[in-house]
Specification:
Blueprint (H helix, E strand, L loop, with lengths): L5 H12 L7 H38 L2
Length: about 60
């Protein structure tokens, strides 16, 4: 692998960084809200599944 000097490296880093398309404030906000919404939905789903399994097992073990 070829070695570059620090000046060339910094120039390459700047060139690559200028190609990055940064999200707008609105895109960041919408994405953040969606992540929290899906995390909440997932938590509620697993809570309900856990409640169902716990109730079923308690009923089943209560028969014995």
């Amino acid at each position: 692998m070829a070695r570059t000097n620090p000046l060339q490296f910094m120039q390459q880093v700047r060139a690559e960084t200028s190609k990055v398309v940064w999200p707008t404030r609105r895109e960041t906000l919408v994405t953040t809200v969606m992540v929290f919404a899906f995390a909440t939905l997932t938590a509620v789903f697993f809570f309900l599944v856990d409640l169902l399994i716990r109730t079923g097992l308690s009923g089943l073990l209560g028969l014995f």
